[in-house]
Amino acid sequence: MKILIISTLNLSHSNGGTVHFTSISQEFRRAGHILDAIIPSTNNQKIDQQIATKYFDKVIFSSNKLSKLLPISKTSINSLLQIFTVLQQNPNEYDWVYLRSNLLSFFVLLALKLRGFEKIVTEHNGWFVDELTMMGVYDWQQSIIKYLQIRDGKLANLVRTVVPNIKEKLIENGIDSQKIFVAGNGTDINFFQPKTRQEILKKLNLNPEYFYLGFIGDLEPWQGVEVAINAMSIIYDKYPETRLLVIGGGRKINYLNETYGNLEYIKFMGVVSYEQSNDYINCFDIALLPKQGLDDIGYSPIKLYAYAAAGRAILASDIKGIKELEPSKFLVLHQPGNSQDLAAKAIEMISNREKLSQMGIIAREYAEKHFSWQLVTDKIIQAMEKYNYNFPDISR
């Protein structure tokens, strides 16, 4: 198949969204499909060329100049500029369009349909209203975004959701259940792998005498990093050799740095490149995933899958999309938003370090069987092929 894939993400940035998008892109091509893309320019010709060569067969770069005008959208507003790019494309060149949905991507979807693109799958990686609520966005803005997300689901031929509860939300709002399929997130199990602890700590100039709890990712409200920080005083009292490594940037980084940066047991390490991320994760004796909020929707956490592939023991929130993995015995659950419970569970884990090693081995084995991006992309391709079989294009 020849597929046109569209997103407003800046692929020069390393975060969960860009990893998701580029990983699926690579798997489409590995499966033998031709993949063109419409993505925003990074405003750096050399970087644009590197991205185009690495992930796609051809790239049409759109502008990213609107992204600063609507802060709540991050990059979503650039969808409006992609409308003009879409209208210049020939729909007869493509078998499918894969559109990563965002707050405003419905307008791109509408442009695709008006231009004559017949088969479009949209990816819904969140229930946007819930995320906007956590960010304190006005109710009237939430109503508009909810309407656009529902219209997106109705207009698309297929809808991919990353968790079952997003599918349920769409069905509740009148989307045909037959067009929706669930394909969660994944990780690169070849990139994320266990490494020798002492070598990695030496490489990153970290004291091997310390015991490290760690978090890596965007510091957004739903990540719950402050819960982990507040738990550290209790953990530190019991085990003074413990340290918390916080790796990443985001909306809360300045606040967290100013509030907690002077604590000796907290180390803010800033943003690291994707290429460095496996090394940093391998520093964690316990990898943390203290997510909070979005209880009705749940998560398909890329971070957890990377932790597991790197062979880390995991301490995570007891929340949908995470708690279902507890029987696999490579993670321990704590109450979401509860620093005292997180501390108690961490202390219990630290007290049995031999068990932590076993959890890491189990995590790696489980990741190899269940968390690869290839498995995720196979589900997407199967949904497309099933649609092609049920609705053959007799004009081709």
Automatic annotation (TrEMBL):
Transmembrane stretches, start-end: none
GO molecular function ontology, one term from the record: glycosyltransferase activity
Any Pfam family hit: Glyco_transf_4
Domain spans labelled Glycosyltransferase subfamily 4-like N-terminal: 15-190
Record CDD domains: GT4_PimA-like
Boundaries of every Glycosyl transferase family domain copy: 197-365
Source taxon at top rank: Bacteria
Name recorded for this polypeptide: Uncharacterized protein
Species of provenance: Cuspidothrix issatschenkoi CHARLIE-1
